[in-house]
Design goal:
About 80% of the residues lie in helices and about 0% in strands. The protein is mostly helical. Helix 1 runs antiparallel to helix 8 and helix 10 packs antiparallel against helix 11.
């Protein structure tokens, strides 16, 4: 039997992981959706088109780089002696490393391509005729984006949100580098499992891993369902 204190120690990382996944996904919805829309819009100016290609390459870097590399450079960037962390320190603002806010920043960067790609692909699928009619009927770019583009891309947005949420739940390298293992603050479930294995507490590791497997199966089923809807539309 697992005692009450150990059960509490097991549930806390799940709460931190779910909260991190929710906040990260919400931030991506608000800020990455307009970026995906801008990237998907055709550009007549060559320099702007090249800029989009370069930006897309930067966004997709987390797909090919090890998480520890991204976490290492984020750790340097947010540390009090370099970059953003130095600026925060000079202005008497609390540092972001080893905080939940720092985890959110790292998770957004690491999950960005997993959200951008399906949303970008869905924006590309909007028929040219729909775009032309929208230009004729609605002069405001913001209203065209809100009333035409977003509804047309809703399947991609849902798919990107599910993938980003699932990806954030399973993060390890990035969150370990910039968040450490502070109970109730930065210790996510992947780090908690690693610590239980190190302590040879396989029973707790089995239980936590089993819950993650169940969550993963549910998320994969949802993603597959949304993908089928996307293919039919």
């Amino acid at each position: 039997m697992i005692d009450q204190s150990l059960m509490s120690d097991m549930l806390s990382p799940f709460w931190v992981s779910i909260k991190l996944a929710c906040v990260t996904t919400l931030c991506l919805l608000l800020f990455a959706t307009p970026i995906a829309y801008w990237l998907a819009k055709p550009s007549r100016i060559k320099a702007r088109g090249r800029l989009k290609v370069l930006l897309m390459g930067i966004i997709t870097m987390p797909l090919v780089l090890p998480p520890t590399v991204i976490g290492f450079y984020l750790l340097l960037l947010l540390s009090p002696s370099v970059g953003i962390g130095k600026w925060l320190s000079e202005h008497n603002i609390s540092p972001l490393i080893f905080t939940f806010e720092g985890l959110v920043i790292g998770s957004i960067i690491y999950s960005l391509p997993f959200y951008i790609q399906p949303v970008y692909a869905q924006f590309l699928r909007i028929p040219q005729s729909v775009t032309e009619v929208a230009h004729l009927l609605e002069p405001s770019r913001m209203r065209r984006f809100m009333k035409v583009a977003l509804p047309q891309a809703r399947v991609g947005i849902i798919l990107g949100s599910l993938v980003s949420f699932a990806h954030t739940i399973g993060e390890f390298g990035v969150v370990l580098m910039i968040g450490g293992s502070i109970s109730g603050e930065t210790k996510v479930v992947s780090i908690a499992i690693y610590e239980q294995v190190e302590a040879l507490n396989y029973e707790a590791a089995h239980m936590m891993s089993g819950i993650l497997i169940i969550m993963g199966v549910v998320m994969v089923a949802l993603i597959a369902s949304v993908s089928r809807i996307s293919q039919r539309s």
